[in-house]
Predict the structure.
Amino acid sequence: MNREMGSWLDSHVNLESLGLPPGTSRRQVAPTLERIEALLALLGSPHVEFPAIHITGTNGKTSTALLVSELLSEEGLSVGTYTSPHLESINERIRWNTTPISDAALDDLLQRIATVEEFLISPPSYFEILTAAAFTFFADIAVDVAVIEVGLGGRWDATNVVNAPVAVITNINIDHVEYLGPTRTEIAEEKSGIITAGKTLVLGETDPSLTEIFSRRKPKKIITRDQDFGVTSNLPAMGGRLLNIFTPTTLYPEVFLSLHGSHQGDNASIALCATEEFFGRPVNEDVVAAVFGQARSPGRLEVVGHQPLVVLDGAHNVSGALALRSSLNEEFAAAPTILVIGLLGEKDPTEMLSALGVLDVKLLICCCPPSPRAMPASELAAAAVALGLDKSNISIVDDVLAAVKSAQDQAEATDQIIVTGSLYVVGEARGSFGDSH
């Protein structure tokens, strides 16, 4: 993206950074689909030109979306993919057959949106602009299907204007309480908003107490994990997992998935089931083997270094932190741990550090995510002390890259370095490992 268009985009309200440009009002971030609908109408309603698989949930959205996209593409379809946030480049959010959009194409789309912006009653937000850009791109290249990840929640998310024969909810856990509410019930209510009456819901959440919330949206059918689909075997293997996956139509035995973490096995089953539901048939077993065998989900339990082992994981809530800790214990040899962590300000540092098992680490390095929402590293360190970690085992290095460098300088070859706490931290760190990932 060129500097001029980047500056124009950054001048808009961005909930991801919570920055309000001068002269803007809170009305511009109020829950509504009016702005995105008006913007898309001016762009020729591109969102009606393709069917979509629409994905929400607390964790696993991006990994699931990428797996669905790969399966559809490997089956021969032209596939658009829209995910958020990005790790290193904004282009990652908008993909065609898994390839990020080019700078030139993105600049052209943003220029088109800038041209029509003056006809809107209220300026669109940063996320609404990128959503409109993605939908316009997918319509321009005439994709057969788009895989769309919700940005936040579901009901009022800018993506919730697409025609989605298949909706996917990966799971429901506590996160973004300032927007979605403090309980799993309230969060489920918001996320259920992507379900369209008469269409299919692939439900990864298994808590029966939440089922009524989803059924009230009157989907044609609800296909539930561990009942209608799921994994009967989910074992660690060299470089990933070995899975037995079942769907409403098929058993896929001994499938190798090149992603770490048992939760990725669940994500893979959700992705496979959603793809089957879109096609209305089983997916070719050779396609499943090829896609899952070379799957990548950047910044999610991603190994980017050895001797010492370096793992990046964008665990940004308690459930994600617990999954990270469990995966490390199950799949990697026990080793002294250097934990590099930075959190956003709305997170509870005590809960996150406890979930990560901070009292067991060799060294804790606290840093600041590159975001206006960043929690001061000193606050994170104070929470670790309050939990009982000795001050001599804590270091404060505000800059993410400097924190990673400090960890590498102090690590023995047999140690493991874990970088986590926020996708902003992981994205910043990831760029320092070059082509190793």
